[in-house]
Amino acid sequence: MGVTKTQNFTEEQNTLALYAKALGHPARVAILQHLLQRTTCVCGDLVEVLPLAQATVSQHLKELKAIGLINGTVEGTSVCYCINKHKWEEVRDMLMTMFAAPVSCDQKCC
Amino acid sequence: MGVTKTQNFTEEQNTLALYAKALGHPARVAILQHLLQRTTCVCGDLVEVLPLAQATVSQHLKELKAIGLINGTVEGTSVCYCINKHKWEEVRDMLMTMFAAPVSCDQKCC
DNA sequence: AACTTTAATCGTATTATTGCGATATAGTAA
DNA sequence: TTACTATATCGCAATAATACGATTAAAGTT
Hints:
The structure is a homodimer.
Chain A: H1 11-22, H2 26-37, E1 42-43, H3 46-49, H4 54-66, E2 70-75, E3 78-83, H5 85-100
Antiparallel strand pairs in A: 1-3, 2-3
The first copy, chain A, binds a DNA duplex through α4.
C-alpha cells in the first residue's frame, strides 16, 4: 500500500536503489555536478546556481547528506559542501559492478 | 507545489535523473539483475522471482519499458523480456561520465 | 545589545510512487 | 465456443517526494 517492501529484497538491491534514488532528481544531479566542478568546497552559492527556493535546496542537500554522499561543514555563517570521496567511490563501484556485466541480449531476440 | 521543475534544469541533468530514478527501486534493480544473469530472454518467470504481486511486477516492468531500458516481446501467451543493449550502454556511459571525474575534496576540508 | 546573514527546520499543499485486488485482454487448447 | 493461461490495465488506498513561505537558529557585524 505505497510502502516499498524493503525487507523482501537483498541488501545489495536496497542499497543500490537507495543510491540511485538519490541521483533520481535533476536538482541533486545538478548539486553533485556543481560540487564536482569545483576544486575547492562550495560555500553557500548552491542556492544561486539552482532554480529552486532556499528551503528546497536545503532539503535536497539534506537528502544527499543523509546517505553520506556529501559532507557539510559549518564555516562561519555559511556551510561548505563537498563530495564524500569514500562514499562517492563506493557508489561508483556498485554501479560499475552492475553495468560491467555483458548484455547478451541484443535486439528483439525472443 | 510538488512538481519537479524539469524545465529549469539541463537536458543532461533531467535525463540522468530519469535513468537513476528507474534504478531507484529494489524491485527494478532485481528485475534488471535477473535479466542480466540470463543469457536468454526471460519469459514470464519474473513474477515468481520477485516478492510482489503480479500487478505490481507488471507496473515496474512498464516503467523500465517506458524509458527504453528493457524490451518486451509477446511470445504466445507470455512475454519475453530482455535488456535493451543500446539503452543500457547509454545509461552506463552517462553514469561513467559523471563518476569519472576526480573528486578533489577528500575529508572535511572546508 | 541590536542587526544582518546564512542555512536549517516547520508546516502545508500538491503531485508522484508503490502496492494489490479485480477486471480486461490476448493467445492457446479442448 | 468454451475454458485456461499469462500479462496488462483499472481503481483505489496509503505512503513518499517535491516545493516553498514562514520561522527559527547560529554566527558574524555594527
